[in-house]
UniProtKB/TrEMBL annotation, chain A:
It is a multi-pass membrane protein. Residues 64-252 form the ABC transmembrane type-1 domain. Belongs to the binding-protein-dependent transport system permease family. Its main location: membrane. InterPro entries: MetI-like, MetI-like_sf. It comes from Aminobacter ciceronei. PROSITE patterns: ABC_TM1. The keyword Membrane applies. This is Spermidine/putrescine transport system permease protein.
From TrEMBL, chain B:
Transmembrane segments: none annotated. The keyword Isomerase does not apply. The keyword Cytoplasm does not apply. This is Spermidine/putrescine transport system ATP-binding protein. PANTHER family: SPERMIDINE/PUTRESCINE IMPORT ATP-BINDING PROTEIN POTA (PTHR42781), SPERMIDINE_PUTRESCINE IMPORT ATP-BINDING PROTEIN POTA (PTHR42781:SF4). Belongs to the ABC transporter superfamily. PROSITE patterns: ABC_TRANSPORTER_1 (PS00211), ABC_TRANSPORTER_2 (PS50893). Residues 5-235 form the ABC transporter domain. Gene3D superfamilies: 2.40.50.100, P-loop containing nucleotide triphosphate hydrolases. Keywords: ATP-binding, Nucleotide-binding, Transport. It comes from Aminobacter ciceronei. Pfam families: ABC_tran (PF00005), TOBE_2 (PF08402). The lineage of its organism: Bacteria, Pseudomonadati, Pseudomonadota, Alphaproteobacteria, Hyphomicrobiales. It comes from the Bacteria.
Length: 263, 353
């Protein structure tokens, strides 16, 4: 049998990259099951009580729900705005000024802290809006660029004469959008959803300014918890967040395959 | 039911640029008319206006007794075949063909029967369940054709349908398109930049330039009797010699070329000759003659090339370089002196631009 020679340096590099990527996750995972009252790695003993502990602390329970609500709502709203925006930007590319697509990337270019602070000053304080609503606006702004960009990338390779073909065959334009355009950029919409959802659920910088009495998100609660306690609960919450992300990804992978992310 | 198409005084703008000017065109019932021209001549714009994807600034479009001018595209009931096929990538071949029927509320069973029958006609019934991505270019265009034909449109339009196919397939497909169009008797508009393609399958061809129709006639007339110098050049009249009449004697006219060469032409054979005109001829229309008394343009022959049916010469004359064909029996060497004699049936007397 023929075997191809692989440069040992390449193997070393690959291993190092994997350690670099996986190491922190393994340490967090290890620390979360340690039977000690402080964070340590490698774990001493084995217990799941820190995971139970998450649900005994009501602040965690509350913030997990808030974070999930926020992520779903913000992502949903951002897609409602982002898909039509991406459609218009691609469909009427020649007619629209070129700087218009840049506008939708601005929230990424502005540091998240600045975004959070300005929303605090102008919306939360300035307009006296409820905390959850302000958070929602902030998160929506935060994830909108991902929605527009990813859906745009999908639409860029969509041939709009396909849409015209459907219209010429008697399908009204709005119906055509849902029956012809959307099914063909489905992978882009799902990729946008995942990216936006993960961005929202992991956000600290913007949320830091917008959370307030009674309403907080999970990452902010983690931050608050770390300031007071040093027990492995924090590691187990982190593991929970990781699992949530992995769950979303694997559901998508099962239903669609992740290959579209490479497109 | 197939219908006649009437386009009247159509003008269209892209922003401030006028892309179509006062264009009128009529296509008879069952007729196939081509719009032929270089890119940017307005042929695709005309098609998109008729399809309803663009709105004219002024003018009207009628199909039979129905006014289409302001009707939304999806209500126009026009079958369209696109250059890049434009099949629905997420639908099977059968569903692609059935799409138009579905929009018309045809019941699923009947829909499938008609779609299958149409696929049968374009020879693709065995591919009904494939996705378009798994088809070759020629197969895709057949599906596109079936999809447009199955709704039995009163008007069928083609936008450069064969441009993405290779040369051999292009010839096969155009014959197939013509056969299907004939068999159904569907009024058709066919947009192309390929002269051979347009001439070979059309009843009439409109040659377009800069948003106007330069000439609208049968391929035969266009090829033999171009109406102006633009069309003459377009259909391959290599020699366009500007001339001025210097003397008239009954039907006999004496004309002078730019460089001062004199030529006697008979109006009995060349038709009415105005005082200033352009003599248009293909290489075949200028016979190379070594007879010193022949009535032709004096020339010094240059490069000779072999065409199979004749020798072709690059000839230097007082009016500039011309191209003429000489007989196979007497090849002439470069530098030889000769006369280029206009052949009446193959020359046109045109108005200068």
């Amino acid at each position: 049998m023929m075997t191809s020679r692989i440069n040992p340096l390449l193997i070393l590099f690959t291993v190092l990259v994997y350690i670099f990527l996986m190491g922190p996750l393994i340490i967090v995972l290890g620390a979360s099951v340690s039977d000690t009252t402080y964070l340590t790695f490698p774990p001493q003993g084995l217990t799941l009580r820190w995971f139970e502990n998450i649900f005994e602390i009501s602040a965690f329970k509350r913030t997990i729900i808030t974070s999930l609500e926020l992520a779903f709502l913000a992502t949903g709203l951002a897609l409602l705005i982002g898909i039509p925006a991406a459609y218009a930007l691609n469909r009427y590319r020649i007619k629209l000024p070129s700087w218009l697509s840049t506008v939708f990337v601005l929230p990424i270019l502005v540091p998240e802290i600045v975004l959070g602070f300005s929303l605090l000053k102008s919306v939360a304080v300035g307009m006296q809006t409820p905390i959850f609503l302000t958070l929602l606006v902030g998160h929506m702004l935060l994830v909108l660029p991902y929605c527009v960009r990813v859906v745009s990338a999908s639409l860029a390779s969509f041939d709009f004469s396909i849409e015209e073909a459907a219209v010429s065959l008697g399908s009204p334009p709005v119906k055509t959008f849902f029956t012809i355009v959307l099914p063909n950029v489905r992978s882009g919409v799902i990729a946008a959803f995942i990216l936006a959802f993960i961005t929202s659920i992991n956000d600290v910088s913007t949320s830091l300014f917008l959370t307030g009495p009674g309403v907080s998100t999970l990452p902010i609660q983690i931050l608050a918890h770390v300031e007071q306690f040093f027990d492995p609960t924090i590691a187990s919450v982190s593991v929970l967040l990781m699992l949530l992300t992995v769950a979303v990804m694997s559901i998508v992978e099962r239903t669609l395959g992740l290959t579209f992310l490479a497109k | 039911m197939t219908q006649a198409l009437t386009v009247q005084n159509l003008t269209a703008h892209y922003g401030a640029t006028k892309v179509l000017e006062d264009l009128s065109l009529s296509v008879g019932k069952g007729e196939l008319v081509s719009l032929l021209g270089a890119s940017g001549c307005g042929k695709t714009t005309t098609l998109r206006l008729i399809a309803g994807f663009l709105e004219p600034t002024s003018g009207s479009i009628r199909l039979g007794d129905k006014d289409l001018t302001r009707l939304p595209a999806y209500k126009r009931d026009i079958g369209l075949v696109f250059q890049n096929y434009a099949l629905f990538p997420h639908l099977s071949v059968l569903d692609n063909v059935g799409f138009g029927l579905k929009q018309r509320g045809v019941a699923p069973g009947d829909r499938e029967k008609r779609a299958r029958a149409m696929l049968e006609r374009v020879g693709l019934s065995q591919l009904a369940d494939r996705l378009p991505g798994a088809l070759s270019g020629g197969q895709k265009q057949r599906v596109a054709l079936a999809r447009a034909l199955v709704i039995e449109p009163p008007l069928l339009m083609f936008d450069e349908p064969l441009s993405n196919l290779d040369a051999k397939l292009r010839v096969d497909m155009r014959v197939e398109i013509r056969q299907l169009q004939r068999a159904n008797g569907t009024t058709s508009v066919y947009v192309t930049h390929d002269q051979e393609e347009a001439f070979s399958i059309s009843d009439r061809v409109a040659i377009m330039n800069a948003g106007r129709i330069m000439q609208f006639d049968t391929p035969e007339t266009l090829y033999q009797r171009p109406a102006n110098t633009f069309v003459a050049r377009f259909v391959g009249f290599e020699n366009l010699v500007p001339m001025t009449v210097s003397a008239r004697d009954g039907a006999e006219v004496t004309a002078v070329t730019d460089g001062g060469s004199q030529l006697k032409l008979s109006q009995d054979r060349f038709g009415a000759i105005p005082d200033v005109f352009v003599l248009a001829a293909r290489a075949d229309g200028l016979a190379v003659s070594t007879d010193a008394n022949a009535e032709g343009i004096p020339a010094t022959l240059g490069l000779r090339t072999y065409l199979g049916r004749a020798y072709q010469y690059q000839a230097d004359t007082a009016a500039g370089q011309l191209i003429a064909n000489g007989s196979l029996s007497a090849p002439l060497e470069p530098g030889a002196l000769a006369k280029l004699v206009p052949v009446p049936d193959q020359c046109c007397v045109l108005k200068p631009e």
